[in-house]
Amino acid sequence: MTDKKKETKNDKDKRLLESLSPTFHETLKSLWKKTINYIQEHGWIDPEESDYIYPDIYSVAHQYYRYLRVVDTSGWDEKEQEIWRMFLDCQPSIIKRRKRLRASLDFAEKLNMLHLNIGIWAIYEWFPKCNLGFSYIMNVKGLVSDYTKCLIKCIEQVEDGDGVTATPVMYDRIRGRIILETSKGDPTEQLTKISQVYVNILTNPFSKEFQMFKKWVQTDTHQYGGCEIPKERILKLLNEIEEDNLNLVETRNYITKDAGHRAYHIILSYLSDSTGLMHTEIQILDRITSARDEGVFYSGKHCSEDQKIPNIQQAHDVYKEYRNAWAMETFVKELKNVRLYGFVSDEDGNIKDDAGITKDRPFGKRFADKHSIPRN
Q1: In a 3-state reduction of DSSP, which class is residue 339?
Q2: Which of 86, 153, 248, 278 has the smallest C-beta neighbourhood within 10 Å, fewest atoms?
Q3: Is residue 374 part of a domain?
Q4: Does 62 fall in a domain?
């Protein structure tokens, strides 16, 4: 029996996904292939017209759900019937977020703008002697990744849970990443302080950090990188925080001195009239300039003892290695000679994906340090 206390994330994914029967797995694969074939054959809007469009990611998600929900699982094992039911229950939220993606992206862009200006304030006002730098990027979770993670969560609840089989909640369909660059001081201490600054400004209007940042926005007259800060846009978002439209759901502290993947995760919920309740996960990570330049390698907390990884992205790839391979086998291999809106693949399976089907869709990359955004 597997010692779950010593399992890596990758080992756990492998154990859970391999617990599925061949029938369950092949049903997912065959219905996905059927979906792609159907969209290719019927997804056109009058191809004879000059203004026809390709079917899009929403069409794929919607059609896949139609096929999934008519599967007869009566002859399956009881556990797999429950996993299938939970996986089905995840589908409406997957479809809904794709349908309302524009509104979600608008919110994410606003949040990323706020992140950038919090970074500028921290660099020049809050920690001026620490030589800080920040990198920011937002991304939308890829459709295939969404399916795979939802399924893993469903299996985990049935296999490892305490009998409670509620539909999993996905917090990271829109995910922001803030990478701290520093060459002075204790990076663990600095990451802890910076994380608390972000938590307080984003979620606690009564905190001193929120009040100081808001005052800076209202009174600062400098130019940063040749332009003034967008006061009106920032204050409008701060007002939303004060009105409790942006709330803290959960924090996860992965800041440890012995782990290569030092991170602080903030789960936020945002209530919007146009989109309803959205969840966003903000990951605040450190990337240590001096250690990186010297070629220091880290052994990440999600990796086996003998796996040494040189940076955050490689750590991320290693701990999702089996999950990614399973998703490739189940979904991506079927995408040959496919044309969708923002997605093209050839007969050899070479893919250009701007739609976010097989991979996360990044946007809004920004940088902030005293060299790239000088103050004058």
Answers
A1: strand
A2: 248
A3: no
A4: yes
Q: Distance between CA atoms of 280 and 292, rounded to whole angstroms? A: 29
Q: How many domains does the chain have?
A: 1
Closest CA to 266 of 337, 191, 323, 355: 191
Listed in sequence order, the residues at least 6 apart from 129 whose beta carbon sits closer than 8 Å to its beta carbon are: 184
Distance, in Å, from the CA atom of 22 to the CA atom of 35, rounded to the nearest integer, reads 20
Rg over alpha carbons for the chain, rounded to the nearest Å, is 23
Quote the domain boundaries for residue 81: 4-368
The answer to whether position 44 is within a domain reads: yes
Residue 92 lies in a domain: yes
Distance between alpha carbon 81 and the CA centroid of its chain, in Å?
A: 28
User: Does the predicted model carry a pTM greater than 0.70?
Assistant: yes
The pLDDT tens digits for 94-115 are 888 777 777 777 878 888 899 9
Residue 299 burial class via C-beta count within 10 angstroms: exposed 0-12, middle 13-18, buried 19 and up: middle
User: What type of residue sits at position 96?
Assistant: K
